[in-house]
Design a protein that fits this description.
This protein folds into two domains: about 1-405, Immunoglobulin-like (Sandwich), CATH 2.60.40; about 430-560, Cupredoxins -  blue copper proteins (Immunoglobulin-like, Sandwich). β5 (about 100-110) and β6 form a beta hairpin. It is about 10% helix and about 40% strand. The chain is mostly beta strands. The chain is built from six helices and 36 strands. The structure holds CU-O-CU linkage and copper (II) ion (2 copies). One copper (II) ion binds near residues 143, 145, 477 and 479.
């Protein structure tokens, strides 16, 4: 097992943000002297005890949400024809109480401004040109998650470059407008590097997006906000920790401090109008069930987009599962609230069904089938050292109505056009997800760098992705192509009430997708149009986006023929 040293290497970096707006991140919640911080050390066995930054405790939410500006950390960089240089390097970043933590980031400058982990914003059909410089002490490569690109631009682990080397990217962004992202995809190091900081948004604009912004008077960075949701762990000094034990390498690494835009226990002052929240689950392994709560009252919101941009129309929802790498674009109507009202964006309780019924077969890992709270306690042991069990209810972001604001009150009836793929007469390809010898497998296989598990046709294909019964939620991600979800079968009780669309589909199945959540025992049918493939034979990935599963080789290549 590779034990990486990013903490040490990151300490060699410098505090880069003194002059670039990191002050915005200095939350200054000042919870007292350092000796109290020993609570921050992760302790198995006390999952329900309160701890500093515990997201279950509403009173902890006193830190202003970090909102990206026009430069500096996560600054919005409007992409032009000017080629960029993106340098991946170790640095530090203030996350807990303004104290510097080791962090990995992409640094660039453009038009006299400097950026760390820039949020790229680009118009559809324009060019993106950037050279990745590897300033880390280990190999890396960038993957543009959700973009339709030729294989050599996609950041395949085979293209991983060594420390000190460069990789040139130049491509046209043909995707629909929407909220995409980019992150490290280094061979066997994706989980640690993405967790360590190497990830940000990639936002594509098109006419439908501009139209929506106009009609609802939305401004990016004010009333249209990217929200990246992540759970992380910190040591007593408030430094990021990535130390998965063998169990966590198999199940996924869960944090116990929940960050929204890298802010722990964040709040945001809003006015009584519509807000657009572009939620990205940027966590390694945690699934969230997103709901807005005013006290005990669950407020409805409108889902307007998923992974590949806007839906055809808004879909009302009250709770939606969001798995790692998925995006959920929502309109939240704060005009239904009064001045002083407080609403929490929460992750609501659910049963994550981790290895249900499989315990007997897993020798010494637990005591058979369990239910309810007892099960959750047991499961938190399975989750490794986290104090925040998977499926527990906790808060993500506090919204306080504390501003005057006005805005249009009508949500447009149409948002964009979605054409269903014609799958008539297509025979589905069966793809299985299972476990063998304590390894997650796709079609019974582990990742083989240079060979393809299967070859697709340059045609519309239908895949039936079938998860084993004694399994976990696997967010399955396809590189190179967006797909449509046609239906779900054998969905678990946790999901069935949310299946409001045809074919047993939930709202995150609508529109164009690049990642789809597949529950234990479930089969999800998708359609992919490989006719749009670039010329020449190419290898692309299909993998689980639980990043520990990915680095644990729950990944295959598929081949597009010439
Ligand atoms: Cu977002 Cu292959 O990854
Ligand atoms: Cu991807
Ligand atoms: Cu998985």
């Amino acid at each position: 097992m590779k034990r990486r040293k990013f903490i040490q290497s990151a300490l060699a970096g410098t505090a880069a943000f003194a002059s670039t707006g990191a002050g915005l991140l200095l939350s200054g919640c000042g919870k007292g002297p350092l000796e109290q911080r020993k609570d921050l050390v992760n302790n198995a066995g006390a999952p329900f005890a309160a701890y500093p930054h515990d997201p279950v405790r509403a009173e902890n939410f006193t830190n202003p949400l970090f909102i990206p500006g026009g430069e500096g950390p996560f600054g919005v960089l409007n992409v032009t024809d000017t080629p960029l240089t993106l340098k991946a390097r170790p640095a530090t970043f203030p996350i807990l109480d303004g104290r510097a933590s080791p962090f990995l980031l992409y640094e660039t400058s453009d038009a006299g401004k400097s950026y760390q982990n820039p949020i790229f914003r680009i118009k559809r059909d324009s060019r993106f040109t950037a050279t990745l410089q590897n300033g880390l002490n280990e190999p890396t490569i960038i993957h543009w998650h959700g973009l339709h690109l030729p294989a050599n631009m996609d950041g395949h682990p085979n293209d991983t470059i060594a420390a000190g080397q460069n990789y040139p990217y130049a491509f046209t962004v043909t995707n629909r407008g929407g909220t995409y992202w980019y992150h490290s995809h280094a061979d066997q190091l994706t989980a640690e590097q993405a967790y360590g900081g190497l990830a940000s948004f990639f936002i594509v604009e098109d006419d439908d997006e501009l139209q929506l912004a106009r009609v609802l008077d939305l401004k990016f960075g004010e009333t249209d906000l990217p929200l990246v949701i992540q759970d992380k762990r910190f040591n007593a000094a408030g430094e990021l920790v990535y130390q998965p034990n063998p169990m966590e390498r198999m199940m996924g690494y869960l944090g116990d401090i929940v960050l929204v835009n890298l802010t722990p226990n964040a709040y945001l002052e809003i006015g009584p109008r519509f807000y657009r929240f572009r939620c990205l689950n940027g966590s390694n392994a945690r699934v969230y069930k997103l709901g807005f709560m005013r006290g005990k009252e669950q407020l409805a919101y409108q889902v307007i987009g998923t992974d590949g941009g806007l839906l055809d129309r808004p879909y009302p929802a009250k709770e939606v599962f969001l798995a790692p790498a998925e995006r959920l674009d929502v309109l939240f109507d704060a005009s239904q609230l009064r001045q002083g009202d407080t609403v929490f964006l929460k992750s609501l309780a659910f049963d994550p069904m981790e290895l249900d019924g499989a315990m007997g077969g897993m020798g010494g890992m637990g005591g058979g089938m369990m239910g309810g709270r007892q099960r959750n306690n047991q499961m938190s042991q399975m989750d490794g050292n986290t104090r925040l069990a998977n499926g527990l209810e906790f808060n993500l972001l506090k919204l306080v109505v504390a501003k005057a604001a006005q805005g249009p009150r009508e949500v447009p009836a149409r948002l964009s056009t979605l054409a269903p793929l014609d799958t008539a007469g297509v025979r589905p390809r069966r793809v299985t997800l299972s476990m063998g010898h304590m390894q997650w497998l796709i079609n019974g296989q582990s990742f083989q760098r240079d060979t393809a598990a299967f070859e697709v046709l340059r045609a519309v294909e239908v895949w039936d992705i079938e998860n084993a019964t004694n399994s976990m939620i696997h967010p399955m991600h396809l590189h190179g192509f967006s797909f449509q979800v046609l239906g779900r079968s054998n969905s678990p009780a946790a999901l069935r009430p949310l299946a409001t669309a045809s074919g047993g589909r939930v709202v995150t199945d609508l529109g164009w997708k690049d990642t789809v959540m597949i529950w234990p025992g479930e089969t999800v049918r998708i359609a992919v149009d490989f006719r749009q493939a670039f010329p020449g034979a190419q290898l692309f990935l299909f993998h689980c986006h639980n990043l520990e599963h990915e680095d644990g080789n729950m990944m295959v290549n598929y081949r597009i023929p010439a």
